[in-house]
Automatic annotation (TrEMBL):
Name listed for the protein in its UniProt record: Coenzyme A biosynthesis bifunctional protein CoaBC
Gene3D superfamilies referenced in this protein's UniProt entry, alphabetically: CoaB-like, Flavin prenyltransferase-like
Residues engaged in binding CTP: D281, K291, P308, D309, I310, L311, F332, K346, K350
Record Pfam families: DFP (PF04127), Flavoprotein (PF02441)
Length: 406
């Protein structure tokens, strides 16, 4: 839905001198097509990658990198003062170093100094530059000052190099910025959270598996909203065909045993864990190494064995004093009948702090863009969440998690 012209949020898109500058054109398009008023402020060297006419045509606003143009309008002050959001994409190591040290040699760095709105950095650089102690110190400084610095993605970089440092998908950066513009505080800044998403698959043979209908949409919404609230997010994704959320470290798994190993490892450094994945309760007791052929005879029955209860195990480890353990553990319960009664029983049995209970079925929860749920709270009153976008339910979960962490 487009935003009314009278209420168009004013966004400054800063563009650093990196090869990923061409991807910022798509980010600009996402902002303008959703009704935002965007002023592009590139660095002088960024214009070597994408020229001023492109930015002006896509934004509908004048473009300059210099403080000496239109001086009577005092752009080096006014642009930052008037902004509702400043996002720098790509944010190079050079830009973040200047921002962290308060340097102001061009229009973009002046804008960063004068902005009193939320500031988002989407870094892009080679892995060695991202991992350099100077860059890490500058990122830490910016985060301490209240800026949201999205961790770069892992993937193909300039040339033949591959590693962490790739600019996240522009749509995912836009989703983070959209949540930031919604006014959420960075109440998870400095926190590490682990989220599971998707549905596990338990192999019968190399071709067939036992699975479920989970798409991973709710888990990904949890990851996106946590990033937008300042958290460092590890997401364990089971068989999900969705683009990685900007800023999240994604660990891909297939089976329940794979997911258990990844979640136990992630929980070691997490302040909070949210188990949103649909984990198979059972798996075949034996897996055929070759495809089971169809014949005229009736097939042999598939004998099942129980999978470990990962949520209960995380809670048991904490209760038994395992160090370190997450301070807050939340789970999801998908039910078809007696939803609340079954949810209350699960909350007591598993020992988690929060349990999100939702009804599943045709056009309910699995694979849909919306969700409705009741969040059961250990020692507190349940919180009912009406049907709405899955990001809204995710924010309610993080509200409750943040309150407990505080």
């Amino acid at each position: 839905m487009n935003i009314q012209a009278s209420a168009r949020p004013r966004v400054v898109l800063g563009v650093g001198a990196g090869i990923a500058a061409y991807k910022a054109c798509e980010l600009l398009r996402l902002f303008t097509e959703s009704g935002h008023d965007v002023r592009v402020v590139p660095t002088r060297d960024a214009l070597r990658f994408v020229g001023e006419p492109t930015w002006a045509a896509l934004s509908g606003n004048p473009v300059t990198s210099e403080v000496w143009e239109s001086v009577h309008e005092v752009p080096h002050v006014r642009i930052g003062q008037a902004a509702d959001l400043v996002v720098v994409a790509p944010a190079t190591a050079d830009i973040m170093a200047k921002a962290a040290h308060g340097l102001a040699g061009d229009l973009l760095t002046n804008t960063l100094l004068t902005a009193r709105c939320p500031v988002v950095f989407a870094p892009a650089m080679h892995t060695e530059m991202w991992e350099h102690p100077a860059t890490r110190a500058n990122v830490a400084t910016l985060r301490e000052r209240g800026c949201l610095v999205i961790d770069p993605a892992v993937g193909r970089l300039t040339g033949a190099d591959t590693g962490r440092g790739r600019l996240p998908d522009p749509l995912q950066i836009f989703e983070v910025c959209r949540r930031v513009l919604g006014g959420r505080a960075l109440d998870l800044a400095g926190r590490r959270v682990a989220v599971s998403a998707g549905g596990t698959r338990e192999a019968i043979d190399p071709v067939r598996f036992i699975g479920n209908r989970s798409s991973g949409l709710q888990g990904y919404a949890l990851a996106r909203t946590a990033v937008a609230r300042g958290a460092q997010v590890t997401m364990v994704a089971a068989n999900v065909a969705l683009p990685d959320p900007a800023g999240a470290t994604v660990v891909r798994v297939e089976s329940a045993l794979d997911l258990r190993a990844a979640m136990l490892e992630a929980a070691e450094s997490a302040d909070a864990v949210v188990m949103a994945a649909a984990v198979a309760d059972f798996r075949p007791a034996a897996r055929s190494d070759s495809k089971i052929k169809k014949s005229s005879a009736e097939p042999d029955p598939i004998h099942l064995t129980k999978n470990p209860d990962i949520l209960a195990e995380l809670c048991d480890r904490r209760r038994e004093g395992h160090k370190p353990s997450p301070a807050v553990i939340a789970g999801f319960a998908a039910e078809t009948d007696d939803v609340l009664a079954n949810g209350q029983a699960k909350l007591a049995r598993k020992g988690c702090d929060l349990l999100v209970v939702n009804q599943v079925g045709p056009n309910l929860a699995f694979g849909t863009p919306d969700n409705a749920a009741v969040v059961l709270v250990a020692g507190g009153d349940p919180v009912e969440v009406p049907r709405g976008p899955k990001e809204d339910l995710a924010d309610v979960v993080w509200d409750l998690v943040a309150a407990r962490l505080a």
